[in-house]
Specification:
Number of helices: 4
Structural class: alpha/beta
Strand order of the largest sheet: 3-2-1-4-5
Shape: globular
Largest sheet: 5 strands, mixed
Radius of gyration: 15 Å
Order of helices and strands: EEEHEHEHH
Amino acid sequence: MRILGLDVGSKTIGVAVSDELLLCAHAQKTLVRRGTRKDVETVVLLCKQHQTTRVVVGLPYDCEGNEGHRAKRVRVLGDALAAVGLTIDYQDESFSTVEAENVLLAADLSRARRKEVVDRLAAAVILQAWLDAQRPKTISEEPI
């Protein structure tokens, strides 16, 4: 089983997918937004290709930790995906794009190339955070 991860923006959707062991998230592609109905059709197709019905959607919070206007727009897509039978989990996406940008800067990618891949890498950051949160903690990871 795999899980799809989405970084939903106003113009694009970054897509990532987990490995079959649910250990690692891998950046896949960036979709251009075409309206909720067409976006749902595209995500459903991707879910079929990756044989999954679970989608982790990055949810943006404001600086005070509340859901604002952007989060409401993301939930519109999440609700539409749930309405067609997909299981939707939300993951705090705070700083996922910043983290993705830092990785790309460290890799010395050009500005044009960074713009091309940042959304899909942000989706991988979101999905990886969700995957990590699902794993049971080992004794060495528990606080003393």
